[in-house]
Amino acid sequence: MASEKQMEDVYSGQVRAYGSKLLGVDSDGQAQSDEEYAELKRLIEEKGLMDRQPVFYIYKITFTLGLLAASLSLILILDNLWLHLLNAALLGFAFGQTASIAHDAGHNQIFNSTKRNNVVGLVVRFLVAVSKSWWVDQHGMHHRYTNDIDLDPHNVLPIVAFSEEQASRTTGFLRGLIRYQAVYYVPLLFFESYGMRVISVRFLLSERTLGYRLELLMMVVHFAMYFTALSFVFGVWQMFLFVVVHQGVFGFYSASIFAPNHKGMPVNDEDTRRDFLRSQVTSSRNLKGNSLVDFWYVGLNFQIEHHLFPSMPRNKLREARIVVREFCMARSISYYKTGVLQSIKDILQFLNQVGASRGTKPTGPVIQ
After folding, report:
1. In terms of Cα–Cα distance, which of 242, 313, 298 is closest to 98?
2. Does residue 337 contact residue 286 with C-beta atoms inside 8 Å?
3. Cβ(343)–Cβ(355) below 8 Å
4. Fewest C-beta in 10 Å: which of 53, 125, 170, 291?
5. What span, in angstroms and rounded, lies between the C-alpha atoms of 284 and 147?
6. What sections of 27-80 are H helices per DSSP?
7. CA distances from 285 to 57, 83, 147, 178, 221 (A)
8. Whole-number Å distance between alpha carbons of 323 and 44
9. For residues 333 and 324, what is the distance between their CA atoms, to the nearest angstrom?
10. What is the pLDDT of residue 163?
11. Distance from CA of residue 197 to its chain's centroid?
């Protein structure tokens, strides 16, 4: 499957040569970039940061499934609507944490065997009812064309513009609407879970393959079990409220994990000429913080390191950050890190600038 091949390219680092050619880097520049990346990769491997982490993932998967099971059990135990709605929020958080396991499996972070990672990814995607094949396809494209304004699927939202060029293409009502995108962007994140399911179904219906039909069946079974179980506990309106809170929190939490990674950062487009190493580092944003931030953002607060080494286990990203930052500083490669609140401010200011401006092209935050 083509999407699986895309992810394999990302794991092996083959994308760096392809990305350099795509962005128009000459052969000498490409060779220098490949040598730099190879040197950085050697430093990372010498420290054992690419080694599999079975103990960590046994703990992580056990904890996450335990959190999921606890929240599901509370549905049967609680008898107060407000407590049920609080638990719905907890279940949304548990869904987000569970989906992060599928993310790691999709990047081959858990096992050396791709088949084993695929099995974990398929099972976890069933638990959250999101297509594994769709995710691998779009996320592989995201890693290959990171923050490319035309080719990165994470930059394609119907009512949000991430560049002046995108904004200029809009017409009529939409053109007026995006002037206020900084206002409605955060509330929009609550609908992310619904969007993922709709796109998953459309993707799975695009080809008549056994694998796609199996995933579609798994989604149907998931929601049949989901609504059947809730109907035994709640009346219609109580079930409606529970679903709205649960799915809303799941969508918001999932989207909020990914939003700080690239939104408002310099884009890669036909006007840029950056090799793989620089395009990944300069278009990504790291978040400062402690182990609680690592837990909340499932390791993706180290977005620069994750994009340079997608198959690195998440618990090694903090250590890798030191190596990567020193490497970049020694070569005057811009490396941007900021706090969680500042990242939100960066994103909203950027969206406001894109929505309101019709002249200069937004450049993102100043990178130091």
Report:
1. 298
2. yes
3. no
4. 291
5. 8
6. 27-46, 54-77
7. 25, 37, 11, 24, 38
8. 7
9. 10
10. 85
11. 15
